Amino acid sequence: MKSTAHLFRAMLALSLLTGCSSYRPTPAAFHEVLDQPYRLGAGDRIRVTVFEQDGLTNTYSVDQSGYISFPLVGAVPARGHTAQQLEKEIADKLRQGYLRDPDVSVEIDRYRPIFVMGEVGAAGQYSYVPGVTVQKAIAIAGGFTPRANQESVDITRDINGKVMTGRVQTSDPLLPGDTVYVRERLF
Fold this sequence. Notes:
By secondary structure, this protein is α+β, with helices and mostly antiparallel strands. It has helices spanning 2-20, 28-32, 83-95, 134-140; strands at 45-50, 58-61, 67-70, 74-77, 104-110, 114-118, 124-126, 152-159, 162-169, 179-182. A 5-stranded mixed beta sheet has the order 7-6-10-8-9, with helices on one face. A 3-stranded antiparallel beta sheet has the order 2-1-5, covered by helices on one side. The protein starts with a helix and ends in a 5-residue tail after the last strand.
């Protein structure tokens, strides 16, 4: 009877400790997305050039629902598309009664921002620059506070419409829209 009570207490303590752990191993898709072409999302601003059509050439923002509002053709889905896919989509829509053979080019004018929070000097929203790493983003946000865990951070990332959180090293690269959370160290 006594050994059963001790076993029960030990199992209860172990389950409580396991429940307190917030460690999340980094999903495999987390690093695989770094080698794939960039996909547009809400908050990105793109520059669309339609050659020999100055009235259509302009910068357009991807709205919250994932569309751009393009003259003549209306709403064009952009979320989840690469720049090349969006070029084809716009050209196909313009071919439907507006232009005979449109030559469309899409380039990213401004990426959606990254967010840095937790144990940093100035948490907030910052402009994304291609090639930025976690460490550089933390430096932009005022550096680590004295209580910060400087070994690893948690990143929340939208991958193909699914929001994932994983723990990474400070040397890992960031993507537009990432949220970096710097945890407090234990000692």
